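hey so i finally got around to running the thing on that chain from the lab meeting. sorry it took forever, my laptop kept dying and i had to restart like 3 times. anyway pasting the input first so we r on the same page abt which one it is
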Amino acid sequence: MSKIKAVFFDQDGVIIDTERDGHRVSFNMTFKEFGFTDEWDVEYYHELLQIAGGKERMKHHWKTKGFSKPLTEEEIDNLVKEMHKRKTALFVELIETGKLPLRPGIHRFMKEAMDAGLKIAVCTTSNEQAAKAITEKILSDIKFDIVLAGDVVEKKKPDPAIYNLALSKLGLKPDEVIVVEDSKNGLTAAKAAGANVVVTTNHYTEKEDVSAGDIIVSCLGEASGEKAELRKGNLADFDGVVRVKQLMELFG
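ok and heres what got predicted. didnt touch it at all, straight out
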C-alpha cells in the first residue's frame, strides 16, 4: 500500500494560469476605470512578480515609472488600497464567469486523487475570496479537505509555514504528501516542509530554477488535449499525461 495520503495544490499558476490572464488583466482593467492609461504587458508583469503583493507592485510601479497622472506620497497610499480592492473584485468576477480556464490536466488529476482516497488541499497565499471562487464554483465537484488562503500564515512562500500548517491540520507526515507547485518560491516552501514535489511550469516560471523538484513537467497533461513534457524525473509508461497512480508508486 502506498504511503501517500494527500495532494496539496498551490493555486496561482497551478490550478489556473491566474498571473498572466487573471491578475495582470484585472490590474489593467482597474487602471482604466480609475482614469489611468498605464498598461502592464506580459513581460513587465513578470518583472513585477518578483515583488510579493499586489499593493506593493502598484507602489513599486509608481516609484520607478510613475502613473500616467502625477500622484503624491499621500495620495498613492489611499489610491493603492482603493484600486487593489477593485482589482480583487474584478479578478473574482473573471473566475466566477469562467473566463479563466483550468490548466491542462488539473481537473482530471484532482478526480484521480479523490478516487484514490487521497486528501486534497489548496495552499495559497492568494486572496481568500479568489480561492473560494475557484474551489467552490469552478471545482465544485472536487472534495477539498482543506483550503488555506490569504493571510492564514504570517510568512509567505518561500517560507514553509503554509505547508506546515496544512500538515498539522490534517495530521500528516511530510513524506505522505505530494505538493504540486509552479514556481521556485513555492517549490522552496514545499521542500522546506519536507514534501515530495511535482513542478508544473508555466509562461512565468519556466525559466526559474526549479531543479530541486522531484518531477518537473510543462503541465499535468490531457489524454485528448495538451500533452505534458517531462523535463525531470522518471514516470513509468509516461505518455504525456501525469497520473496520480504513477506518483503514488514513485513516492510510495
